[in-house]
Design goal:
Number of domains: 5
Low-confidence stretches: 88-134, 516-562, 821-833, 886-899
Number of helices: 22
Structural class: alpha+beta
Shape: globular
Strand content: 15-25%
Radius of gyration: 31 Å
Largest sheet: 8 strands, mixed
CATH class of the largest domain: Mainly Beta
Strand order of the largest sheet: 5-13-12-11-10-6-8-9
Number of strands: 36
CATH topology of the largest domain: M1 Pyruvate Kinase, Domain 3
Helix content: 25-40%
CATH superfamily of the largest domain: PK beta-barrel domain-like
Length: about 900
């Protein structure tokens, strides 16, 4: 049942009606006036209720959907929902301005301190795990270790041994607030070899984690009006603790060598908080030269350095630099934790304090608590002393290095040349978003909607009062808790979410720039759409509005004639100018490891992009003028001569422009022509050429192939005709069975004399929704694929293995041992009456009757009976992410392909 919404719109206010609707509905959902889960009025009904245009309501719903305050359920409607805590603003704009002003980098403490929550934004700090309404399928939370790697057997054995050896007396007696002597002795021995810190056990304090160590240091060193210096951006809980002690924060900027000594405050500071081994959040390492300068400054000013050693246990490249406490034990408090190396649930950390502060720390510790539990301390002492801790960290380091490599490879595959910091160690990397990708907050929101957790600085427990480029364009990606398959699948899904938002015109061009230039010229005009407006992007419509008669199958597909049908190449296409019309060819010579020849070598960059025209880099498609984004391009066809670089633009058969792309004047003519053709552009686009690659939607060197029998099977199932050129492939084949190409993945095929490796499926994006003949966005191909089959894949990507000629009419030889299938049955591979479950990470179907033999699960094994550590064979998701599926699974009858 739809609820009635009370909204008061005032046309006299400076805010647009869309902004007023968004603001009032957001507040109503946050304050509980609209209950999460309540069905909201449709855009048509709400527009009638308010007496305004439907487009205004549509834009408001789009904004709320992007911010995760509403969700769209196909065939059901639009429903109110609450975003995760880390995506909700908790301060009013005025309070935010006050909080930022109080975070002055220099200045005098105000005489009357503001409340802590207003000064530090403490309300934004989650006290424990943030409840997420829809559990994330792929969560790249920074600093989170893999629970499956916890040494459970060894820990159980250690606990039993400790309980068997004088546990009754130990558990009955009060513990030393400084901690168990055996554990402090073991930590002292470990730190001497691992971090070059020479300290007596009496200098070591056992804490319940880094947070308690920071709180102890703040209580010990800070007084109202004192200065606490810390790196900015920096760890937000530390900033909260320091301001809670009444200190004024002095932010110190960081660069590629860590904290900048010249930015240290000139006034005497009581405390300097640093994360030198893996700076939080950027992952930068403090250089040895900088470390010496910082130590010298601290000694001269009488400042105590609080060294948070997070990330030091995991170093993948080079040698771990000695800790600051090793070089300056007289003025450094060293903080360590077992949260990342063993487990946060143990609540065990430690402090190494200078000898002069030992007595003061003992008093402060006794005031806070009486120490940590004996049993966990005793077990950890034996774990370290027996060598198990070092062996465990080495195993984790190997596993996490592999996952880091998978993350970097996945980012490069889907986002091109990525700028990363912090990849040499730690459990997360800091990703500097490239041009062509929206701001961090938008990427985070898009990821959440796709059930992929990525973290901007605001949601990653980072304090950055300047709200500079790192906050706007930085994403934190933790990889330790994700299996390699999960990492690859999660980044692919994030890339798809960004692409889908670009395809649906849901992201403004200005949001795709790493910097925002001022573009001279006429203001952008309205986007010209041919044939009417597209359906609102949040309303998923299937791709089958009008049933059409089924086209006859080819002889090769029906299997008429003797012998096994032989697939043949029926078409070869290249797209010399990205986003423009296809150019058919009869023959081409492919090269090993190279993209399809003369394909997407030119592109029209949108005005304002920070793209070097001489050496342009690959970028996401939102930075280019393309048919899928600019429907007006459908009115013309382009042809580019490979030998002369002469570009001809035609309207039907009538030439409209002939220009030489090798000549500056010719490029200027092309730019001016397409500016007239796409009047929404603020200025002429720029012609760019990829000197060492291409401008395909994926940055790797792949060749795309479409099986026409698969397309015809979709036509028969959906009852409409599908132009195969929607898929903009290089190679079209006929004569194979529908969907047979998926069986070739991971094998070689021979096409004529050329050998190709079948690399992976081709996930389709919103570009397929555009009719190549009219430019209208008249279909939802990816959504219909998902509903019918549980995925949006169609066609495959190939990698050339040999240099050879490829021609229309060439025969395709299947992988050795592959058998052609005449058809693919619906629900094939799912037992009749069996209980089935679908993975929310990748749509893998677990059939209890069949089990999962590839992972050692016998037929007949119930989902509840699977081992605790069992993961999805396709994406590595935990079994907790599987939900009942049955025959139709709520997503339409899925086509389950047999393996």
């Amino acid at each position: 049942m739809q609820i009635q919404i009370s909204l008061l719109l005032d046309r006299a206010r400076p805010e647009t009606l869309t902004a007023q609707i968004v603001g009032q509905m957001r507040d109503a959902i946050r304050l509980g006036r609209i209950t999460p889960g309540a069905r909201l009025p449709s855009s048509r009904r709400l527009s009638e209720q308010l007496g305004i245009g439907r487009n205004t309501v549509t834009r408001a719903y789009e904004t709320l959907l992007m911010e995760c305050y509403v969700e769209s359920r196909p065939a059901s409607g639009i429903f109110a929902t609450l975003p995760p805590l880390d995506l909700r603003p908790t301060l009013a704009p005025s309070a935010i301005g006050n909080a930022v002003s109080r975070y002055r980098m220099r200045g005098v403490m105000p005489s009357t301190p503001a409340p802590l929550s207003a000064r530090t934004g403490a309300a934004n700090i989650p006290h424990g795990p943030a409840p997420v309404r829809n559990r994330l399928s792929f969560d790249f939370a920074p600093g989170r270790p893999d629970q499956a790697l916890f040494p459970l057997k060894a820990w159980r054995r250690l606990l039993r041994a400790c309980l068997a050896q004088g546990a009754a007396a130990a558990l009955a007696q009060p513990v030393d607030p400084f901690g168990l002597a055996a554990l402090r002795s073991a930590i002292a021995t470990h730190l001497a070899s691992a971090r070059a810190i020479v300290a007596e056990p009496g200098q070591i304090v056992i804490t319940s984690g880094t947070a308690e160590g920071i709180a102890l240091a703040a209580r010990l060193l800070l007084r109202p009006g004192s200065i606490a210096a810390m790196e900015m951006p920096g760890y937000r809980p530390a900033a909260v603790a320091f301001e809670a002690a009444g200190a004024e924060l002095a932010g110190v900027a960081v660069d590629n060598e860590g904290v900048i000594p010249a930015e240290l405050p000139p006034a005497p500071a009581a405390l300097l908080y640093l994360t030198p081994a893996h700076q939080y959040p950027t992952g930068l390492v403090l250089s040895q030269a900088r470390a010496g300068l910082v130590i010298g400054w601290a000694r001269r000013s009488g400042c105590v350095i609080v060294e948070d050693d997070c990330g030091a246990d995991f170093r993948y490249e080079g040698v771990v630099a000695p800790a600051l406490a090793a070089a300056a034990p007289d003025c450094t408090i060293h903080l360590g934790t077992f949260s990342q190396s063993v487990g946060a649930g143990l609540r065990l950390g430690y402090m190494v304090v200078p000898p002069a502060l030992v007595d003061s720390v003992r008093v402060a510790k006794a005031l806070l608590n009486s120490g940590s539990p004996w049993l966990e301390q005793a077990a950890m002492a034996e774990f370290i002393r027996g060598g198990g801790f070092v062996s465990h960290v080495l195993r984790m380091r190997t596993a996490y290095r592999e996952r880091r490599d998978h993350l970097l490879a996945a980012l490069q595959r889907h986002f091109g040349d990525v700028e990363i910091s912090g990849d040499a160690g730690g459990l997360h990397v800091f990703w500097h978003l490239p041009a062509g990708v929206p701001d961090a907050a938008t990427v985070e929101a898009l990821g959440r909607r796709a059930r992929v957790g990525v973290y901007s600085l605001s949601s990653g427990n980072v304090c950055d009062p300047s709200a500079g480029v790192l906050s706007r364009r930085g994403i934190m990606l933790g990889y330790a808790a994700q299996a390699p398959k999960q990492i690859e699948q999660g980044i692919a899904r994030l890339s798809d979410a960004v692409d889908d938002a670009l395809d649906g015109h849901r992201i403004e061009f200005g949001d795709l720039l790493a910097w925002r230039p001022s573009v001279s010229g006429a203001a952008p005009g309205p986007v010209v759409r041919r044939g009417g407006k597209p359906a609102p992007w949040f309303r998923q419509k299937p791709a089958l509005p009008v049933p059409l008669p089924r086209r006859a199958e080819s002889r090769a597909m029906t299997g008429e004639g003797a012998g096994e049908p032989m697939p043949v190449v029926t078409g070869l296409y290249r797209y010399p100018v990205k986003g423009m019309s296809p150019q058919p060819i009869d023959t081409v010579r492919v090269q090993a490891g190279k993209p399809f020849p003369f394909d997407r070598v030119f592109a029209l960059a949108r005005p304002g992009t920070a793209m070097n025209a001489a050496e342009p880099k690959w970028a996401k498609k939102g930075l280019f003028v393309m048919l899928m984004l600019d429907e007006g391009l459908a009115t013309v066809r382009t042809h580019l001569d490979e030998a002369t670089l002469q570009l001809t633009v035609l309207d039907g058969d009538r030439p409209m422009l002939a220009a030489d792309l090798a000549d500056a004047d010719g490029r200027a003519q092309v730019e001016a022509f397409f500016h007239r053709l796409v009047p929404s552009l603020a200025a002429p686009p720029g012609v760019v050429r990829a000197r060492d690659g291409h401008f395909m939607d994926k940055p790797d060197n792949v060749v795309s192939l479409i099986n026409l029998s698969t397309v015809r099977s979709l036509e028969a199932q959906w009852g409409l005709e599908i132009d195969p050129l929607r898929f903009r492939a290089n190679i079209y084949i006929d004569g194979a069975a529908p969907w047979e190409e998926f069986d070739w993945i991971g094998n070689d095929i021979r096409v004529g004399e050329a050998v190709f490796w079948v690399d992976r499926r081709n996930g389709r994006c919103g570009a397929t929704n555009v009719n190549p003949a009219t430019g209208q966005r008249d279909r939802d191909i990816p959504g219909s694929l998902r509903k019918a089959f549980g995925h949006k894949d169609l066609g495959v990507y190939l990698v050339a293995r040999t240099d050879a000629d490829l021609s229309v009419g060439d025969a395709l030889q299947r992988p050795r041992g592959a058998v052609a299938r005449a058809s693919v049955q619906k629900d094939a591979g799912v037992s009749v009456g069996a209980r089935t479950f679908i993975c929310r990470g990748c749509y893998y179907i677990y059939d209890e009757a069949q089990g999962a033999p590839t992972t050692g699960i016998a037929p007949g094994t119930r989902l509840s009976g699977l081992p605790t550590g069992w993961r999805c064979p396709d994406c590595g998701s935990e079994k907790a992410l599987f939900r009942p599926h049955g025959v139709d699974g709520g997503i339409g009858k899925p086509l389950i392909l047999t393996e």
